[in-house]
Amino acid sequence: MSIREERKTEPVEEYYTWTGKARGWLLKHLPADKLLPQDQPSYVASWIYVFGMGAIVSLVFILVSGVVLSLNGPAWYHVSDFGHFVNSVHLWSVELFFMTMVVHLWGKYWMAAWRGGRTLTWITGMGAFLVSIVAAFTGYLLQTNFDSQWIAFEGKDALNASGIGAWFNVANLGQIFGFHIVLLPLAVGAVVALHVILVRMHGVVPPIDAAETDAQLSGPDRTEATR
Amino acid sequence: MSAPTMSRSDRDGLARRPWRGTVREYDLFKELTVALVVVGLVIVGLSAIFGSPDEPSVTLKSWAQAEPADFVATATAELGGTSETAGYGPPYNTTADATQTIGAFDLQSFSGVQLPIDTAKDLVITPLTTLNAPPSAALDAWNAASDTEKTDWTAAYTDALTNAPDGDPAQVVTGDYGPVPVLTDALLTMASQGALDGVLNAQQSFYNNDYTRTILFLGDGAYFGDLATAAHLTGDQWGMMNETGNTPGQSWLWLFSFWYQIEPFASAPNADLLVVLLMLVLSVLLTLVPFIPGLRDIPRWIPIHRLIWRDYYKKRAAGRG
Predict the structure, then answer these.
(1) Which cofactors is this protein said to need (chain A) (predicted)?
(2) Which residues form the domain of B134?
(3) What is d(CA B92, CA B289) in angstroms, rounded to the nearest whole number?
(4) When you count CB atoms within 10 A of the terminal residue's CB, does the N or C end of chain B come out lower?
(5) Minimal C-alpha gap between A190 and chain B (Å)
(6) pLDDT of residue B11
(7) How far apart are CA A156 and CA A170, in angstroms?
(8) What is the C-alpha to C-alpha distance for residues B239 and A139, in angstroms, rounded to an integer?
(9) Percent of chain B with pLDDT over 70
(10) What is the pLDDT of residue A218?
């Protein structure tokens, strides 16, 4: 019996528990070759595609420098040269994170990247952007210097006018600390993780007006990888 | 069927199914590694060259020492209930008609007074009672006075300070100010020595991380705002997106800051509420753009995608030629 024939006789795996059904769903929608691919469609060839990865990597630096800062408390960097450098790394990581994320966002807008069932990918991307803005705002409030004092004074009015200034009190350092180092990083991390998983599940959106008649899809080089 | 005559659902059908065309090698982990190195070098380089700003915080002590006249005028306003905080409304107090509304839409009142602050009692009288040698006679006189007397005393003293050279309390003309000059002078001394910062922040407790009262007190004076103006941080200077010095701040708040610079928002008494709601609507629109005809079609009308996927379109044109 050949290998091919042996495979044919393998029983189809049944999923009868919650865990098994979850595994089945994941294997169907996010198989290993989608999660960790070795190739991409040939149209994925533009500098615009590096900005998403740039944002993710910036987020890594934000999290690492943020953990170091949080280990020593929000006032540490005032009295430590190393602390001040870590604070600088945290700041510039955030600046790069937003810069790359905004370029990524507008790039995806002009690519109409929500096509073909990718609506949730777009929505989670926007969610990551909006939650990140709140996270960054709480970071600026945690500087424990003149800037954070003024931002607390100035920022309270918009929050109070919206009726949430007492629940999200920008002058309450303890509350803002909790938001900034626990709740909002978890929220950003979760939304970004979901976004990346959705990108892998659905793949990179094809060019606008790509047609089945295109040589790159159905022409003589259809099966020829451009490696 | 040629591409221009295809319906959107046909084209999306192609986008919906797995790609079956030509492919190129792609190494996710390699890209991740390269990105970590490149972005890491950029971040470390920027940090080493530009660092990060750290303008020391303002204290009640530094304020009282730098601008004693402004401090006394502000303390008088807190006593008389005429400061910005005293007239703020929720969540600090119940001042009538102080909230930002759009017609009957009043979220500020809906939240209620959750952070109650009685400016005379919390910012002046109670802190003075914690002194080893409090101005007891003046405190007794204040506590025994009627609301009308308190209002008249503080109003008269505010006018006298306004008319005094440089607002200097020592050069105020004689008048019926009740215990107000003694109370504000004692508070000035307390602040100048650094005791008021501790008392206001501690709020009768050892541990505290809530600086609401101190921030509001600072903001009621002119000194704090003048420092912010000099550092281009105020609202009419695009302040929410700025940082002290020349370091970039929250530039992603540019649109939020923008509305405060133009009419009708710039002079609207409910500008904060209007801007927040407008930004909320715009954020929802951008989030739901895949569902909104017109907005979702702009990328087809303005063909920037031709630049992004120029190789694909070039190959397609060559294939058809």
Answers:
(1) heme
(2) 60-230
(3) 39
(4) C
(5) 17
(6) 54
(7) 6
(8) 16
(9) 95
(10) 59
Q: Is residue B196 part of a domain?
A: yes
As a whole number of angstroms, the distance between CA A65 and CA A181 comes to: 12
Q: Do A56 and B215 touch (CB under 8 A)?
A: no
pLDDT < 50: residue spans in chain A: 1-5, 219-227
pLDDT, residue B208, reads: 84
Share of chain B above pLDDT 90, in %: 73
Mean pLDDT of B52-80: 96
C-beta of residue B72 within 8 angstroms of C-beta of residue B189: no
Q: Which long-range contacts (CB under 8 A, 24 or more apart) does A106-111 make?
A: A107/A48, A107/A51, A107/B308, A109/B289, A109/B299, A110/B299, A110/B302, A110/B304, A110/B305, A110/B308, A111/A48, A111/A205, A111/A207, A111/A208, A111/B299, A111/B305, A111/B308, A111/B309
CA A8 to chain centre: 40
The beta-carbon contacts of B140-148 under 8 Å, at least 24 apart in sequence, are: B141/B178, B141/B179, B142/B79, B142/B178, B142/B179, B142/B180, B142/B183, B145/B178
Q: What are the structural domains, with CATH classification, of chain A?
A: 47-204 (1.20.810.10)
- How far is the C-alpha of B64 from the C-alpha of B67, rounded, in Å? 5
Q: Is B45 domain-assigned?
A: no
What is the Cα–Cα distance from B181 to B172, expressed in whole angstroms? 10
For the residues of A92-150, what is the DSSP string, one character each? HHHHHHHHHHHHHHHHHHHTTTTTTT-HHHHHHHHHHHHHHHHHHHHHHHTT-SHHHHH
User: Over 50: is that where the pLDDT of B82 sits?
Assistant: yes
Which residues of chain A are within 8 Å of residue B309 when distances are taken between CB atoms? Answer: 43, 46, 111, 207-208
Distance CA B22, CA B319 (A): 13
Tens-place pLDDT, residues A146-162: 999 999 999 999 999 99
Amino acid identity, position B153: W
Chain B, nearest residue to A125 by Cα: B287
Residue B274, domain member (yes or no): no
Q: Return the pLDDT at A7.
A: 53
Q: Which of B27, B35, B309, B22 is nearest to A45 (CA)?
A: B309
Radius of gyration for chain B, computed over Cα atoms and rounded to the nearest angstrom: 30
Beta bridge partners of A154: none
The residue written with tokens 């308190």 in the block is B150
Chain B CB contacts of A224 under 8 Å are 22
Report the pLDDT value the prediction gives residue B305, as an integer from 0 to 100: 93
Q: In chain B, how many domains are there?
A: 1
Find, among A144, A170, A146, A147, the residue nearest to A157 by Cα.
A170
